[in-house]
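WARN retry 2 of 3 for item q-0093 after timeout on previous attempt; input resubmitted unchanged.
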Amino acid sequence: MSAPTIHRTTARFEASEKLRAHLQRVLVALVDLHVQGKQAHWNVTGRGFRDLHLQLDDVVDAAREHSDTVAERMRALQVVPDGRTETVATTTDLSPYPAGLVSVGDTVDAVVERIAQTVEVVGAVHDDVDAEDPTSADILHEIIADLEKQAWFLSSENREA
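OK item q-0093 returned
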């Protein structure tokens, strides 16, 4: 018996190694931001705890949703995303989050810094991604805009008029 013939109805776009590496780097940063955001959510303490505790869920949700979008885009480009804990731990660009309880003010600063680091990763790969795949670059634009908004919301907690 011979193997069945597979007929493709659409052309397959396969990402270059460079595009694969760039999207993987973004994915890792977003997964790490999601995990670190939960760590912050669980261990923030002090005056203003409840509001920040709830606000951190918005950051976590944004990072999780964006990581899913990036991973699904990677699959559309025939790339296998790798969000395993060991991969994230060994390849992330983000600083490690402090252990233990963290004050409200320090939590704000720490999470805003990790958001900025994530935006920096996305920005660093943007032009190369845009040159090869403008659709993926559009996704990166959305990530930057959303994370910058999250950073603004959070950083406003530690600012005075």
